[in-house]
Specification:
InterPro entries: SBP_3_CS, Solute-binding_3/MltF_N. Residues 28-251 form the Solute-binding protein family 3/N-terminal domain. Pfam families: SBP_bac_3. It is found in: Cell envelope. This protein is an alpha/beta fold. Helix content is 37%, strand content 22%. The chain is built from 9 helices and 11 strands. The protein has helices spanning 2-16, 18-24, 50-62, 78-88, 133-137, 149-157, 167-176, 221-236, 239-246, and strands at residues 29-34, 36-37, 41-42, 66-71, 94-99, 109-111, 116-123, 142-145, 161-164, 181-185, 209-217. Strands 1, 4, 5, 6, 7, 8, 9, 10 and 11 form a 9-stranded mixed beta sheet that branches. Strands 2-3 form a two-stranded antiparallel ribbon. A hairpin with a 3-residue loop joins strand 2 (36-37) and strand 3 (41-42). The radius of gyration is 23 Å and the shape is elongated.
């Protein structure tokens, strides 16, 4: 009996240190990232993106190895379907860029505190002063993408609108100076060339802001708590603001 026990222990050590060593290995931070969500993440440039950099920073904070999983968010079912499928398949234990304040998450999912905010901001043609709220309201015309919250806001406010079919067309119009100011989705400014003038400020209206959160399994309380603690630390030391600046995203308070 003793000889067999010693033999078993020796085999376990030779195979990699046995149960104690295996238990000491921290579980990975398996991050699901949208495959087409610049400037946050893109499978076409897997080493770049705000979410990619944030995932690295969080894995470092948590002392876990990092695994990235690219997700094609379906047109039908959207993020709720993507969350359900990828968590159920065990592809990840944290999902990035989930909007707060939308459909309530399933009881088995836990949203984190916000780590970034997307919003509609005032912008002017390149080389012009960044428009304040008061200045924008005096413009002869304001550009906006049609059938968006920005378009609806301008309509409700009774402000003169110049509608465009998409962000690319609106940014081109700004670059040409076709409109003196516009209400632009902040993520669209990230890679815009030439970059419109904007200080990242927009109307004070909650309908024009979308905080982004991480979502993790509610059952993994330790992970959820650790993510919130790490995000608070990264916010306090300026990391979140620096990541937004690095990726060309106008900054806004996350709380």
């Amino acid at each position: 009996m003793h000889a067999r026990f010693v033999s078993t222990v020796l085999l376990a050590v030779a195979a990699g240190g046995g149960p104690a060593a295996a238990a000491a290995e921290p579980p990975p931070l398996a991050a699901c990232l949208d495959s087409d969500h610049p400037p946050f993440s893109s499978a076409a440039t897997p080493d770049r993106g705000l979410d990619v950099d944030l995932a690295r920073a969080l894995a470092d904070k948590l002392g876990r190895p990092l695994q990235l999983a690219w997700v094609d968010v379906p047109r039908r079912g959207g993020l709720p379907k993507a969350l359900r499928e990828n968590f159920d398949q065990g592809r990840c234990n944290v999902f990035f860029s989930v909007p707060a304040g939308g459909d309530p998450p399933a009881p088995r999912w836990r949203p984190s505190r916000p780590y970034a905010v997307l919003s509609y901001v005032w912008a002017a043609p390149p080389g012009q002063p960044a428009p304040s709220d008061a200045a924008a309201r005096k413009a002869r015309s304001l550009g906006a993408v049609t059938a968006t919250p920005a378009d609806l806001y301008l309509h409700v406010q009774g402000l003169p609108r110049s509608p465009y079919p998409n962000n690319a067309a609106l940014l081109q119009a700004l670059a040409r100076g076709d409109v003196p100011a516009a209400l632009v989705w902040s993520a669209a400014l990230a890679d815009a060339q030439p970059r419109p003038a904007s200080d990242g400020q927009g109307p004070s209206d909650a309908a024009l802001r979308t905080p982004l959160t991480l979502v993790s399994p509610a059952a993994d309380t330790a992970l959820g708590n650790a993510l919130d603690t790490a995000l608070a630390e990264l916010d306090a030391d300026g990391t979140l603001a620096r990541l937004a600046q690095r990726h060309g995203l106008p900054t806004a308070a996350t709380h």
